[in-house]
Amino acid sequence: MAKLSVLFFILFYTIGNAGSGSHSLWALATYINGETPFPEFTVVVMLDDVQVAYYDSNMKHFIYRVNNTPNKMHDDEAQDGAYVFGIIYQSMKERYFHLKHHLNLTEGVQVQQRMSGCEMLDNGEPALIMFKETFNGIFVDHAIYNSMTHFTYDSGTLLVGYYGIRQAYEKALFENVLLPICIKSLKRFLKREKNVVMRKVPPRLRLIKKEVSGGFQVSCLAFGFYPRHINMTLLRDGQPVAEQDLTGGEVLPSGDGTYQLRKSLEVSTEELKKRHNYTCTASHLSLDNKLDVSWESGAERVHLSTLSVLLVMLLIVILLGMFICVMRWRCTASHLELSLQKRERK
């Protein structure tokens, strides 16, 4: 099942990453044939990057998740879901038998996955509707209806002879059935979950440096931000460092509903001697201005030398003060002793 999650992660973040000015609703469906402990058919429904519903062929009803708490859907939503995913279920079963015969498969577990959904602009107008399908990790076909004017269908290499028939069928299905239902469902989910998917959490920015073999690694780390769209750049003396010189650069979930991004640069010992100024700068929807964090290579050694001089001077002052106090105490003791001796003589 871990492999299934990895495949869907790749599908979702390659295509389902809606722009900052839009929202999307995606159904991630899996059809499994063979003996496994999993349901034959499962669907996970995602609003942007938040799971909002779940269905499988064992339960045979939809579970709506409000703040990660399962709840049953309303009747009209359940009917829409049952209709749409009934189409997907039957389509994937028929597709499975065709591919099984085409690839001459007889035994084992076969896994078919399909991502389908729509994207809506901020003004409520539909932007696109699409699906993409894989079979045992191999691309099968892909259709996209973009800007409601351009339809593209790619039948791949496994669906021989399907192109003309499938293109006409998918276009009609997208326009007349799936798009209206998807946009209506997207608006409904967005109204309920707007406090989650439309929230803005500002990033925290760190410039981390650690010693490695042959020099230092300088890393820019932005974390704890939402939504996931962020621009972060590492500057050297005010100039952007080329992306090919950096490692990392992929936005990753943090596990708490926020995201993180790290970019790292290897700095040699020779480069350190030049005392470059490194700056991490980040811009995000939650920020009015950019965040900046800087570090000057070699500055620690200068600061350390200055600090050492200050500490020595402070130590000298303390010792001098102690010496003066001791001398005064001795003087006071001597005067007191002389006074006592004079009184005794009298």
Automatic annotation (TrEMBL):
One GO CC term, this protein: extracellular space
Signal peptide: 1-18
Domain Immunoglobulin C1-set intervals: 215-290
Pfam family, one: C1-set
Annotated keywords: Glycoprotein, Immunoglobulin domain, Membrane, Signal, Transmembrane, Transmembrane helix
Chain segments annotated as transmembrane: 307-326
Entry keyword annotation includes Isomerase: no
Keyword Nuclease: no
Gene Ontology BP terms: immune response
SMART domains, A to Z: IGc1 (SM00407)
SUPFAM superfamilies: Immunoglobulin, MHC antigen-recognition domain
UniProt name for this protein: Major histocompatibility complex class I-related gene protein-like
Upper classification of the organism: Eukaryota, Metazoa, Chordata, Craniata, Vertebrata
